[in-house]
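User: Here's a chain of 340 residues. Predict its fold as tokens.
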Amino acid sequence: MKKHDKTLPLWTDLPVALRVRSTHGTVPYSREILLRSILSSGMEPDQAAAVVHQLEKHFTSYNKKTVPSRLIRNIVHRIISNTASPEFAERYLLWQKFKKDKRPFILLLFGVPGTGKSALASSIAYRLGIQNVLNADAIANLLTKGIDSYKKVSDYAFEFLKQVKENKDFPASEENIVSLFKEYAEQSADVLYAAIRGAVYHGINTIIHGSTITPGMVDIRRFHGKVVIVSVTIALPGKNELKRRLDIGSGNKVSVKEVNALWTIQKFLTFRSTQSRIPVIQNLSFDASIAKIMQFCSSNLKNRFSKSGSIEDTIDALRMILADVHAALSKHKSEHSVTD
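Assistant: Prediction complete.
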């Protein structure tokens, strides 16, 4: 990757009246919106800011008050190619293309408590301009215990651990721990399905994360052609790191018994992820994890676009055509029966 000049000031004074024209009309130029669109490529914030700076330098001598959005897109693509890499430039165009797609984008983040799902979800949401971020554990906790219990979103995720810890007669074997965890996960399956269905129905880009949702718990094939769903499992490489994160996050010392139980669940989630061909990211470095997730999302999106026109899409299109033809014939037959 080429180095960019960090000594440059981030912003340049632009004409106040500069507006951006698209097929939907004109809107005021926004640095924030442009910056986030560049961040969707996976570039670091300082790199994206440098791209915005170079673009604004170009438009300081722009005589017109309105600039086509296509021109901005082309210039940004060229700057990214020259200052970062063609790969980032391609990702930038990819997400710009997806904005015109009617299908919503949904990112599912799996992982036990303490792996950093919430922080990653917030950062990815900002980069992709996604406003709808749902914590499945918080929703499940609200539905099962009522509004008065909605104090700590991790209560539901830790509920099964309390049973393991407090019930001395319960043999904490890996099999029993996974079996108990599945009971809580089954209750969260309805939450996950409802969240996906709601995002699809309203066409809202969404990130869903939780400690009691598991890979494969919802058959996403039923949403084929209606949404782009990307799944990622977040993990940690060892029990010591997991305990350290949990101690910091909870403010209290987490028992060895609880850590061992969570480690068992992580192994279960990792196994289910491998079965479902879902990537597992070891979240030792926050920035590296963000980069990996962004890269995977872009790669997945690219594959979806490249498969447009595939046999599955063709079959779906033919079914829609046949349904329309059938409806038209039924209407025609009904009209003739009335006149007769």
